Structure formats: C-alpha cells, structure tokens
Here is the input.
Amino acid sequence: MKFVSTRNRENIVSTGQAILQGISRDGGLFAPCIFPSIGDLESLLELDYREIALFILGSFFPELGMDYLKESIDKAYDDKFQDKEIASLVDVGDMEFLELYHGPTLAFKDMALSILPYLIRGAESIEKIDKEILILTATSGDTGKAALEGFANVKGIKIMVFYPENGVSNIQRLQMITQEGDNTMVVGIKGNFDHAQSGVKAIFNDMDLKELLDRHDYILSSANSINIGRLIPQIVYYIHGYMSMVKRNKIQMGEEINIVVPTGNFGNILAAYYAKNMGLPIGKLICASNENNVLTDFFNKGVYDSRRELLLTSSPSMDILISSNLERLLFHLRGEDDKLISRKMEDLVKRGYYDMEGMDTQDIYGNYAVEEEISWGINHLFQKYGYLVDPHTAVAYMVYRKYLEETKDHRKAIIVSTASPFKFGGKVASSIGIDIRDEDEFDILKSLSEKTGIDMPSSVERLRDKPVRHHSVVDRDEMKAMVMKFLNIGDIYD
Here is the structure.
C-alpha cells in the first residue's frame, strides 16, 4: 500500500513514512492510493471488533506484518475498554446509537489512539529509524487526553499537546493538565482550536526547526486525524456497527444504512466515507455541526468560508472553523487533482475561503443544531427513552431529526455517540432539569448520577483529587518556543 499527498501526486510514500510524517512535507495530507475492497460482507459477520480491526489494518498497512498487527490490536483493545464489544450498538426506540466512549478517556478518540502508538513504533521499525519521536498534537478537547493516555511513558516517544485555554470543558481540561508521565507536556493556548491547529501545522512546516530536531535525533509526528495512522482505525467501528445491526436483524446483509456523525475536524465522518468506498453499504453520510456551521454551509452552498467568529459552545470538540480532513474528501471527489487542492488550501490561508461549486457531494447531507436544540434533544432522549447523551451526540440526534423531516428517508441509521455525558455535566444536567447554580463541577456530576441512576465514571471521579502537573499557558506565537523548551534545545536554537 502506498499513500499520496493531497497537494502533490508525485509525492508517494510508504506506510511507514506516511504514519511517521503525519503531514506531508508539502503541507498536504496523505491519502491511500487505492481503497482496498471489503469483498464478501458475509465473511465479516462473525468477526469481533479485534478481528475486524486486523482485517482493516492489514488491508491498509500490510507492511507492518499481520503478526505484529494482531499482537498490537490485542494490547490496544484490552480490558481498558469497559465494554467487551469495544463499541456498543444501543437500541433507543427505533434508532441505533453506536457508543464509542467506553475507553479510558471516555471519548471516541480512544478507538484510534489506543492503537496509534503501536502503529508508530511499527512504522519506525520498518523504516529502520532510530530516533526519538515527538508527537505534536492540537486538541479541541478529546484528542489531547486520548493521545496522552496512549503515549504516556512509551519508550522512545515524547508527546506534547496544545489546547485552547477557554475552549474545552472543565473535565476535558482536568483530564489533560493532571496527566502523568515524564514524556508528556500539555500547554494551553490563548486562542481557539484553529489557532492551536494552525500553530502545530506551522511547526510541521518549519524547515529550520525540522533540521534542528534532526540534528538532535528527533522526528515529528502527529496524533491528530491528519495522521493517516489515526484515521484508518476509525473505519473499524463503522463495519463493526453494520455487522451488529445485521446480527440483531435490524437490517439484511447488503442493505444500505445512513451514518450520522457529529463533526468538527471531519475525520470521524471521513472514516465512514472510506468505509463506503471499501464497499460497506452506506447510503447517506449525515454531517452534523453545532453553531460553528462552516461545514453545513459548504455542503449546501459549495463555498468553504472560515471568515466568521468562532463560537464557544457546549460541544467544544466541534468548535472548529478549519476542518482539516475535508481536504482529503475534496482530493478524492475531484479526481485526485492535487494542483486544484493546493490552490484551494492556499486560498483558505490567504483569503479565508474557497469555492468548490459544482462538486458532487450528493452523498453527504449537512445541517446544524443550536444550543436550545441541543438542550431539547438531551432532555427529550432522557425523558422519552431514559437514554442520556452528551452535547455532541445531541447535535447528531437533532440533525438526524431534521434530515428525516426534510427527506423522509427512513433507511436504518447509525447515530455516532462520541463522548460520555459526564464529560459535559453542566450542559447535560441543566438540560434535564437539574439546578446547577452555585454548584461546582463534581457536585453537578453527583447530582446527574443520582437523578439518572448512572454511575459517574471512576476516572472522572478521581479527577477531583488529582494534582495538576501542567501549568503552562502561552500565546500562540510562543508554541514553537515551548517545543524547544520541552526538548531542551532552545539554547542551541538561539
């Protein structure tokens, strides 16, 4: 398997190079040169999550070796996932919610970031690289903690996470700044996620810094979904979810379903698009946004326009105006026209927008939900079905309702549930009628647990007493200096 840069089709690299580089040297993202075929769907029906993961990762990353992949998968998807199925399909009325938050950090990012450290070590081995790896990651809330959890104390790897100081929930922030591990560093940014993400991309494209890192035996890689090694494992749970529906007689094998995904950086829904291109019977991909509805506007108008104020919402992992993975989708939909993609991404940087009018996106539906709708959705699901969701999942649910009303398309659907409601206790509690005035975060979560009868996750409960280990908050133009400080190479650079 080879991978090609979205901005230069002549830049074709191996599996190991794609995973280790994270971002192509020309600024593009790596995409598979071909989509492996699933083939006979029936052959996957009796496979469990780990076996499906082996099939998918073996299809995209065969160079890593099937024995190595199997061993890695068994270690990644072990008892740190509370659900033996790893990803649970839950019946809620006539709907199906795919719960992806039963891992160690209570968010869907665990699904890919549990395996990514093994993929990176495997890539390092086949490329015969004997250098320390610096994982550099921007987070809108969940990626950061999941990456820290996966890479903490991993020999030969350091990890540095940048997060928007006021753009994550309190629980998300506490999960990160209390992170243990001598190889970890967490830094708050005085700005939003887009500032953090653009700062990380600028560091990846800084040739002087890369040369310095190379001289000191460091190489840069990423744990964001811009890294193909992070994106591909996300395909697994869509196939697993589909097979679960067949086993439960919700659908017939081969029957098309729709997929509803709350979307910020576009990686999670792109994995569903990749599954569709591999042969999974997916009809419509429903792209659900919050009030930062730049993707909704794009799919409805053909213009991607980031020239707007970024709003801080109750679904912070979607508070994003630059959806990086959309670049991969455009590359595939426009016949791998790298020159076009390069021009459009340059327009986005210089002008703040680009147009792609006339592009066929009929397989993707985009819409969004505002705060009042999110609160209503959380309350409605709890009062009618006794089912509790977080704000991101509520966005997906509300957009799905709008889709049904507009299209009358009643094909079975999977609604992706991306995070535990206990990571966003204030919004969830107030939505179901709990008075949260004058209550601290953990008292709110206790009240939420008592009212719903759902135990507070122990990992959240322990945060109350965990010591803060990471105190740094910097301006976005200081991110590069923080990298050098972390690696103790600033004096040489100066």
Summary: The CA atoms of residues 232 and 445 lie 34 Å apart. The chain has a mean pLDDT of 95. The first strand starts at residue 2 and ends at 5. The chain is about 45% helix and 15% strand.
